[in-house]
Amino acid sequence: MLKISIVMPSFNQGELLEETITSVLSQGYPNIEYIIIDSGSTDGSLDIVKRYSDKLTYWISEPDKGIWDALNKGFKQSTGEIMAWLVCGDKYLPWTFEIVSQIFNDLSNVDWLASSTSLILNNSGIVCHRSNFLNLGRRNSAINYESVFWRRSLWEQASNDFEKISYDTPIPELWSHFWKYTILHTTTMPLAAVRYGRSVSLATTNPVKFWQSFSWKFLLSLPFMGYIAGYTRGRLSYNAKINRWYCPRLLSGNIIRLILESASRITRLIFS
Amino acid sequence: MNRPQFPKISIVTPSFNQGHFLGGTIDSILSQNYPNLEYIIIDGGSSDESVDVIKRYADKLTYWISEPDKGRGDAINKGFKHATGEIMAWLGCGDKYCPWALQVVSQIFSQLPEVEWLTTGSPILWDIKGLPILCAFNYGYSKQAFKDGCYLPTIMTLQQESTFWRRSLWDRADGYVDAELAKVPDFELWARFFKYDEVYTTSVPLGGICAHPGQDLASHKYLSVGKNIWRKYFYNNRTPLLFKVLRSWFKKHRMQTVEYNFETGQWQIKQISAKIFS
Asked: Quick one: average pLDDT of A225-245?
């Protein structure tokens, strides 16, 4: 049972606040630290926060310089081993904390976790769509920020670079500093649901510039491209192997592999 | 348009000697507080704590009984005889719905009269504690692929736990579940349903099957039973093998999906064409 710290910045979102708070507190996970940083709301948000204040570890309401300021303030108050943040309006699912604590407990090399499944809530708070982040875990991919969890050790490592983070695009820059120290581990299990149209859109920027990604490493990997393609193809269609007898689609995959492998042979000839 | 906002949903749970899983199943349905729910439990004369668990929830159940029966399919048939709802489904003992399932299902069925049969593209696998351990992804399910035998009861098939249908379709397909098929009555039902209508798929996860130890999810026995059913219903429609190969190379399968339009707040039907594997 690892301690999980959740920081929630909020600003004038009274009607959504209660749903979000109950989604965190109603999970029955005992070892949780819930911190709300309000940027001086003027609507009824504070009354709702005060109603739950006995279950919150810390809450404050004062004007701040933006979401990054609020997050920093919140995480300074936290002591948990696992850290995450939640935008007001989004929800965690009933099983989120148990799964996350199991993963971080069992796998010591996982420092940073995100779910490749993203559930989208409509205005009345019902899950109405599922979208996939198929490239999640690669450096160029967007990260669905609502389902990201990380270890405190990673946060402390990355905190050396926090002065460089600007207040305009703090979250993508935070991810780019995380990328320096670890890789992103992903799971297909849905961990959180994001509200449509309400939340900030925070895709990640890659720390590697576009021209840098076409480096000599990329050129060197060309001769092996066939094997890589064959490997991913085989992984994606593991279901197909069971039904191959009835629908032999794998043949088309083999043709692609054949073309790529012959291309790799040609490149190898050229380079040698 | 005078359609009810909350159509009546009838859910049947067959149970037999699985008392320690039964509570989670009942909770996952009743905790959704759906206003127009009809929940029926048919117990096959269990000797463990099942009956006590059912009695705890008895005031919220429409009907329950505990007497010896001829198996799972028989229990399901008995349950549906007591059901009066517009939308029907059954949920095995130990399996669970997602917390939003009934809301989503009622919205789709009340807004789209064309949809007679709904399943999910994101089947879930629960573990014993009720946590999801897998959330798969399919774009949809096509009638043509079913005829080609792509959805035989293996890992990739229509998940019965998250499938709902209208009473009209159930009546047209003679309204029974084959009681002699102990483990795969759903596949035989899909074969009959596919004769009358196509299946609509939503990307929202609706429910999942529970993987408890001692249960073989995709054994060869189910596959051979499924193959026999498939031959029985689709032998005449069977495409020659060469055509099948060519089609699987060049043609994508047409699938009916149901999508939520976040701008208008309405569900709408979208026809897609996608490859079944990969």
From this structure: 37
Is residue A112 exposed (0-12), middle (13-18) or buried (19+ Cβ within 10 Å)?
A: buried
Q: What is the pLDDT of residues B231-244, one digit of tens each?
A: 888 766 566 666 76
> Do the chains contact at A190 and B135, CB–CB below 8 Å?
yes
Q: Report how far residue A200's alpha carbon sits from residue A235's, in angstroms, rounded to the nearest whole number.
A: 34
Compute the distance between CA of residue A73 and CA of residue A170 in angstroms, rounded to an integer.
14
Model confidence pLDDT, tens digit, residues A186-214: 888 999 998 887 544 444 444 444 444 55
- Which residue is it, tokens 């690892």? A2
Instruction: Output the CA torsion sign for A230, A236, A237, A238.
Output: positive
Which of A25-29, A239-243, B85-89 has the highest mean predicted lDDT (pLDDT)? Answer: B85-89
How far is residue B5's CA from residue B36's CA, in Å, rounded to a whole number?
10
| A52 confidence band (pLDDT: 50, 70, 90) | very high
**Which tokens is B148 given?**
């080609």
CA distance A37 to A11: 9
DSSP label of B71: -
Is the pTM above the cut of 0.90? no
- Split at pLDDT 50, 70, 90, the class of A239 is very low
How far apart are the C-alpha atoms of B197 and B117, rounded to whole Å?
Answer: 8
Q: Which residue has better confidence, A208 or A176?
A: A176
B172 CA to chain A: closest CA distance, Å?
29
Tokens of B5: 């906002």
Contact list, B129 vs chain A (CB under 8 Å): 98
Q: In terms of Cα–Cα distance, which of B194, B181, B195, B261 is closest to B226?
A: B181
Copy the structure tokens of residue A224: 């092996």
For residue B93, give the nearest of B154, B23, B38, B178 by alpha carbon: B23
CB atoms within 10 A of CB A180: 11
Structure letter (DSSP) for residue A204: P
Residues 198-237 of B with CB under 8 A from A: 203-205, 218
Residues forming beta bridges with residue B118, ordered by sequence position: B164, B200
Strand-by-strand arrangement of the B132-135 sheet: B96-97, B207-210, B124-126, B132-135
